[in-house]
Design brief:
6-stranded parallel β-sheet, globular, about 250 residues, 6 strands
Amino acid sequence: MPCLLIGGGPGMDPEYLLPMIQEIKGFGEIWAFSPPLPLTEEAVLDTWTLGLTQAVDKLKAPVIVGHSFGGMLALQAGIRAPACKGLILISTFPDSGWQKHTSEAVKRADPAMWAEAEQAWNELGDNSALARLFAAWSPFYFTEPNVAKGGQWLSQLSYSAATYRFGPRFFEKYRPKLDLESTPTLAVTGEHDQITPITGFQGPEFSLLKKFYLREIAETGHFPWFERPESVRVALQAFVDLLAPPSFRGSYD
């Protein structure tokens, strides 16, 4: 059973998801999708959704694992069973309401935390400056005990500044398709996620779905597996076992 990873941002290299996914039994080949650069801002939605659809078609029913923006892209593209085996949405949101939560979090914070990093980004605009910016935002992403450690980790990841610049246009047009009736879906969110809280998936349009599973990870933020890796591993493994029970996996383990 192949697996396709889509990172957050946009602009985060999906490789940061790999250590988490490698702990899950049941996957065969693990692939990563990075959105192709569109020719214009107007083309960003079509370019990214088409690119993802084509990648999924080549992999023959993968499980899609999308973190934050990655989950939103999967929802926007409308990829459902049987094209994919299932969806794992980590710290994502089913509509544009996440922007309100982000704005509220920013209002509660001290802008001095990220002022220098933001200035460097505005002046340089390169991958290194973007890494520094993400690290400066760590108080929004992690619970207080893990802010420093999480910020250091974010500063060491790989980023694409060119992809990141198209993010605002994507989010402006974000109108996801929520026809998940036929598609096994696991949504995982951190208890203290300030960006994409669990409330996004608590409506009846999700709770009434027979194949939709919602898991909140205690004492974690926007990167729940970083703070509570075992709790996330258990949640993901249980879902993958539903898709491919151990006794039927054959060569997948």
